[in-house]
Each structure stands twice: as structure tokens, then as C-alpha cells.
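thread: overnight batch results

M.L. [08:02]
morning all. the overnight job finished for the chain we discussed friday. pasting input first so we're all looking at the same thing
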Amino acid sequence: MTLTSMILKMSEGLGRTCAIFFLTLLFSLPLGLVVAALRRSRFAAVRMLTRMYISLLRGTPLMLQLLVVAYGPFYLFGMSVSRNKLVPTIIAFALNYAAYFAEIYRSGIESIPQGQYEAASVLGYSRGQTFFRIVLPQVVKRILPSITNEVITLVKDTSLAFTLAYMEMFSIGKQIANSQSSFMPFIIAGVFYYVMNLVVAFVMSRFESAMAYYR
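M.L. [08:03]
and the structure it wrote out:
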């Protein structure tokens, strides 16, 4: 197999890799905000359960979580295993990254001075208006570097989908490498991931520049 044919073959899985990436962000970013809100709940039981969720998802390997989501229902309840591997892949990725994003959100929210909440209350803002109009824009600006790090990690973690035999780019490259006894597919995959992360870093740097409105 020539280098060109390897690249073309692996590019077929690039769309699936991008699907994992974008769908994970689509679900995990808002879910992380919900988890962060529950983490700061007034109810001790809710806070405890949320802390357990975050601790469990951050303390166990993503590969293990993929296997649990995909095959856990079969072993625990005898349910049939879905042949569509994208759904359990996205569920596991979204739950995992939501835990990380939740802690990033929480750190950003807690960095806002209490005086801003008090001032908003004096001006007649409700709690919801205070959060979405005053607090959240500042939080987004402060947490962008940390979010960027997680998004870059996500690009690389998409390769873990091979655990469920989901034929994304890395899985196809691994298959070609085994059949051709060649290391070249792994080099090609590395270049693909590097370029994707360059694009992510560029886009996020533009966001950071746009949010730097006090400079």
C-alpha cells in the first residue's frame, strides 16, 4: 500500500474522529455547567452526589468508562449490545469531560468577588440575571486557557474509541499497520492529530483575543 493510499484510507475515519470531537463538546460543555451548579447546591446530599460523580469520572480511566457504557447494560441487565458504537462512545466521552469542565467552571465561578453579587442584588437583578449577565461572561474569559487544554486533550483522546472497535482514524491506521507491517500509519495519524490541535489552538487563541476587552 502506497503512502497516498494510506492517507486516503485513514482520511475516511477522520470524519468519525471529528464527529466524536464535536459531539462531545456539544454535550459536555453545557452538562459541565449543570454539574458545576449542582456542585454548589445548597443541599448537602446533592453536593455529595455531585462530588462522587466528579471523583469517579476523573479517577477512573476513560477507556474503562467506554467499556462500562458499551457493555455494562449487557452484563448487568442482559440487554443487547448496540451495533452502533458511536452512541456509547459519545455518552462516555460527554460524561467524562463534563466532570472536568464542571471543576473548571466551578473554579471560575468561585473566583468572582462576592461584592459583584451584592451589587447586582442592590441593582435589582435576580439570581439568574446576575449569573448569566454578569458572572458567566467573566467566568468564560477566565477559564478559556483551561478549557483550551481540555479541548486539546479531547482531540487526542478520540483515539480511545478504538476500544469499542469504532472505526475512526486511529482504528483504521492501526488496522493498516497490522496488515502492512508498517509504522507509517501511526506517523500519519500523529500528523493528523497535530494539525487538528494546531487548528484548535488557533481558534481558541482567537477566542481569548476577542475576550481580552480590557487590554
